[in-house]
Amino acid sequence: MTINTKTGRLYIENRAASDIAEEFGTPCYVYSKNSIETNFNRFKYAFGERKNLVCYAVKANSNIAIINILAQLGSGFDIVSGGELSRVLAAGGDASKIVFSGVGKTHAEINYALEQKIKCFNVESESELYRISNIAKELNVDADISLRVNPDVDAKTHPYISTGMKENKFGVDVEDATRLYKTATDLPNISPTGIDCHIGSQLTDIAPMRDAALKMVELTDALIASNIEIKHIDFGGGLGIQYEDETPIHQEQFVEMLLEVMGGREQEILVEPGRSIVGNSGVLLTTVEYLKHGSNKNFIVVDAAMNDLARPSLYNAYHHIDNILDKEKRPLKRYDIVGPICETGDFLGKDRELSVNEGDVLAIHSVGAYGMTMSSNYNSRVRVPEILIDDTHAHVIRKKESVEELFSNEQIAP
Ligand code: LLP
User: Fold this and answer.
1) CATH numbers and ranges of domains, the chain
2) 3-state secondary structure of 57
3) 28 catalytic per annotation
4) Is the beta carbon of 273 within 6 A of some atom in ligand 1?
5) Which of 118, 152, 176, 283 is the most exposed place for a label (fewest CB within 10 A)?
6) How far apart are the C-alpha atoms of 222 and 103, rounded to whole Å?
7) How far, in Å, is the centroid of ligand 1 from the Cα of 100?
8) Where are the beta strands (DSSP E) in 151-189?
């Protein structure tokens, strides 16, 4: 067990959450190294000897310490910006295992990625193909590309994170793919080497993933029949995790489905998981500042807010919240857990039964993915520290931001 409750006290690996809160202060993000490694290795073991590359989606959690842990396990990376590319390289990631996704790659980003010799560009439009070809020609290098195909399946997830339907901005239509591969083959300094898709995030139903995978292999067969060499198929990420009572898609189940759909085909299999590697590997610790009892509602005002964790306000997402010291059986009360930001949308949980006193520390669970990476400085709040737990050891992997840093890039106009 990596994040667990021993005798009613929350532990991250073998370190009590109460010690961590005391030593580093709150709010703080805390991650379990072991949990991250285990989740990654579950993909690797499931693939076994089969040629594969697990490309961790950096956007889920881009701390260089976390990228480094995964790089050491042989991970590849799925990036969506030049900033993420810099992070992966700074963290010791291997450029030849990087795929670059995203609908809006700039000239500078493409240039940088070509100089670094990344594995592949996941191209999302015809215009992008021309742009990559021009830049590769200027640099006198070849760009390996794959087309992100939109398989037009309903991922049945939150509309903001559903990406594989025709009305979404991502990828190119299946019907257009063959023509575009032919265009790519004729363009200078472009080598089509792969094909890819990603239909959405936090998927809890494997059926749409399977439908998309079937469309991908069918298209691959058609491309090969028209003499286009496809060396890898990238099936994207999107595996849902358990936040509340969802049934997650397990790594093994996903890989098994891919192997079954691939049948005897020999292309390298790529996947781009983010959330399923880091999501349940992190908690956000926060202290109860005030208890406020109203006539209609009770509030717990904590020191973390929507700027630290945006998912509840943005997607109405559920994150389990509990008291890190739950043993003393105090009476339970129903509360909304809110932050100090001047917005009604600043909540972290609603209608939760908790037993708390002012000064207690709460843990907000399953925040390892899209927690810190989506944080902001709204209300001039500093970004919180990130702590990595390895057994009993606690490493500060991001220092708490200082107030001076908040406005160090600003200047008063003359
Ligand atoms: N590959 C591509 C091209 C993606 O766009 C994404 C996520 C992934 C892989 C990784 O998906 P995952 O395995 O993590 O589901 N902020 C939202 C999630 C946005 C996901 C965007 N794309 C949230 O907090 O739920």
Assistant:
1) 2-31+279-406 (2.40.37.10), 33-275 (3.20.20.10)
2) strand
3) no
4) yes
5) 176
6) 25
7) 14
8) 172-173
